[in-house]
Amino acid sequence: MEGPHHRKSPPSGTTRRTALGLIVGAPLLTACSGIQQSLSQFSSGSPEGGPAGPQQQPQAVGTGQVKIGLILPLSASGNAGLAAQSMRNAAEMALAEFQNPNIQLLIKDDGGSPQGASQGAQQALSEGAEIILGPLFAGSVPAVAQLTRPRGTSVIAFSTDSSVAGRGVYLLSFLPESDINRIVDYSAGIGKRSFAAMVPDNAYGNVVEAAFKQAVGRKNGRVVAFEKYGADRATPARTVAQSLGQADALLLADDGESVVATADALTAAGANLHNIQLLGTGLWDNPRVFASPVLQGGLYAAPDPAGFRSFAGRYRTKYGGEPVRTATLAYDAVALMAALARTQGAQRFAPETLTNPSGFAGIDGLFRFRSDGTNERGLAVMKVASGGSTPVAGSPKSFGA
Q: pLDDT (tens digit, 9 = 90+) per residue, 6-20?
């Protein structure tokens, strides 16, 4: 599991976003309302090894009548615990910025384990929680769902593993499928028809492969080469390099360091990457990618970074440190709960409310939950440039059908 990606805070005086929008053909709701870090880091079943800290005591934040469970691995080891603390801060920040919310957060520490998540969910439900936010790890989501499904209680988890989504379990996370759909759609829109790809031979690569082949087929394109790699990149790189003459776009879907290594392997195999449009996912939001000469001009899909920059500035003012990239998920989840509690009455957390096709507007742009529990995001398209990235296509203002 890689460390959270931190961003520089914006200059002081950044305008605060003042709405987390519930888009149902009505005005934005009055509530306070980047780019992915390693999307695969919280899809595994458990945190990295190492001793966990002492179990943190349950905490209730807020005085509203609508109770919301929040389950995070607060005492987990390594980056998981650090991410959880940052997400808890962001959740409390959302509560503070939403004007007079009628909710109370019941915060539970699951320690990064399925058993801990089950215990936390049981406590929250017994205390009257109407919906559960979290857990973070994929392996803990089914343990919570076993308790919530018989009750008809919904879960909004933060895992990036879409296999744990399902009836009553929704994922508010950065899913690779959204990245792939956006970048393939954009590429087709600028005339790209023949695609090649190199992806890691792991769970993330499997998800990317399925989404990529479906997206290319949907646009009546063709995949001329598709290779997976493990420790050996040279052999698949040679295969892809030999096929690039038939392709006009090449997808490299991996985190920053690995993408650079893959590009170098392709170059060593004789590929001229300056003659093809390089494509990536939000994992490309990484200084190593921006510094790579061969990746300059590459395009990748990611949330518009303006929202996170504003959020990070407010977070640093409040807590004196930088938020992890996933902190916005906790913020948006709590702000959405507050907005729904204010406006949707007894149906506030019903599946029909949560899966409204018009979706919601959060810090990272538009998002909506699908009935299968996965989500769709309205993403920008960014272009790699030395020292950073620049948007070439903004986030959509609304979802299509």
A: 333 333 332 222 234
For the chain, what percent of residues have pLDDT higher than 90?
A: 82
Which residues lie closer than 8 Å to 36 by C-beta, 6 or more apart? 174, 179, 281, 282, 283, 285, 302, 303, 325
Q: Residue 99 has what pLDDT?
A: 87
Half-sphere exposure of 155 (CA within 13 A, CB side): 36
Q: Which residues pair with 69 in a beta bridge?
A: 106, 132
Taking residues 363-379, what's their average pLDDT?
Answer: 96
Read out DSSP for 104-134? EEEEEE-TTSHHHHHHHHHHHHHTT-SEEE-
378: nearest Cα among 401, 357, 399, 362: 399
Whole-number Å distance between alpha carbons of 321 and 313 = 9
Task: Read off the DSSP letter of residue 286.
Answer: S
Q: How far apart are CA 382 and CA 391, in angstroms?
A: 4
- The CA radius of gyration of the chain, in Å to the nearest whole number, is 21
Separation CA 221–CA 188 (nearest Å): 8
Residue 75 CA to residue 95 CA, distance in Å, equals 22
241-257 pLDDT tens trace: 999 999 999 999 999 89
Tell me the H-state helices in 219-345. 234-243, 256-268, 287-291, 305-319, 327-343
For the chain, give the mean pLDDT. 88
Give Cα 71 to chain centroid, integer Å.
Answer: 17
| Residue 386 pLDDT | 86
Query: What is the separation of C-alpha 301 from the centre of its chain, rounded to a whole number of angstroms?
Result: 12
Q: Would you say 228 and 200 are in contact if contact means Cβ atoms under 8 Å apart?
A: yes
d(CA 252, CA 254) in angstroms, rounded, equals 6
For residues 365 and 67, give the distance between their C-alpha atoms in angstroms, rounded to a whole number: 26
Q: What residues contact residue 223 under an 8 Å CB cut-off, 6+ apart?
A: 195, 196, 197, 212, 213, 216
- What DSSP character marks residue 100? S
How many C-beta neighbours within 10 Å does residue 357 have?
14
pLDDT of residue 30: 28
Report whether pLDDT(83) > 70: yes
Percent of the chain with pLDDT over 70: 87
What is the CA 189 to chain-centroid distance, rounded? 24
